[in-house]
């Protein structure tokens, strides 16, 4: 169990570090939008979803009505339905409160790392909980730091840190490839999501591409 | 007060998207097609996240740096099968490309 936890930290620290940098940026942005540190921190603890928090913050700053904010957050997070569905088998034996904790900690990053671990034969929840918990801690501590010590921190772009998450996704897809169908699904999903974003359907790009691309696997296998 | 209500409902919406599939009565998918579909979901969702950020960073067409950095990450992942090295290669490649003026 210790080895699993150590492995999670050894492999996940660049992503945790990225979450710290982005979390700090969120804290700063929240202050600039007129929130106090408690409100900024409350968003990070209660919502705990990076992309959604930035979108919600933007709407709140523009005095958008609450239903619009909630609907936007819901739409951005619909992709988690797919991720949770993919994790269901792994968590089927767990009791309700354990599943609830895993769900609360479910992010793009923790899903990607958790699934990669399972795909190479990893068992148990230690790896996932260690990584997801570290991500939670990093994100929330960073929000407080950003919201209280407003300063010009390092520029994450200068070190390519803003790309660390995307590079992780690329690597996980590549390492997890088991056959031609996987390659076709990955390329299809990536191109479709990119195209949808360029066409202005940014909010649903990942959901739509993620939901449609598996049909390629269904079609390919049916022809064999 | 509206602020906290908005945040609470946003948090609830987020949690429901993450928790609902974990609490629906499981059971293996009945049809073969459905099993293939569900089996391909993780690859599709992660590839979609990667594709969106690589092709359209900030919602505009990339000028080439992100696809090159993604390729670097993919090659290192293929070569060493090591997540950390692949992430460092991808981030490092993008930092380099930006330093020489390719990419934003």
Give a brief rundown of this model:
The complex is a heterodimer of chains A (224) and B (104). Chain A has 224 residues and is mainly α.
Can you describe what's shown?
The complex is a heterodimer of chains A (224) and B (104). By secondary structure, chain A is mainly α. The mean pLDDT of chain A is 87. Chain A has helices spanning 2-32, 37-46, 50-61, 66-77, 79-91, 96-104, 108-119, 126-148, 164-176, 180-198, 202-212, 214-223. Chain A has 2 domains: 2-165, no CATH class; 177-224. Helices cover 78% and strands 0% of the residues of chain A. The mean pLDDT of chain B is 89. Chain B is built from 4 helices and no strands. Chain B is mainly alpha-helical and 104 residues long. In chain B, 76% of the residues lie in helices and 0% in strands. The chains are: A mainly alpha (224), B mainly alpha (104). Chains A and B meet through helix 1, helix 2, helix 3, helix 4 and helix 5 of A and helix 1, helix 2, helix 3 and helix 4 of B.
The radius of gyration computed from the alpha-carbon positions of chain B, rounded to a whole number of angstroms, is: 19 Å
* CA distance, first residue to last residue of chain A: 42 Å
Number of helices of chain B: 4
Domain tally of chain A = 2
Number-wise, the strands of chain B total: 0
What is the typical, i.e. mean, pLDDT of chain A? 87
Largest sheet of chain B: none
Q: Terminal Cα separation of chain B, in Å?
A: 40 Å
- Strand coverage percent of chain B: under 5%
Question: What percentage of residues of chain A falls in helices of 4 or more residues?
Answer: over 70%
Largest sheet of chain A: none
Strand segment tally of chain A: 0
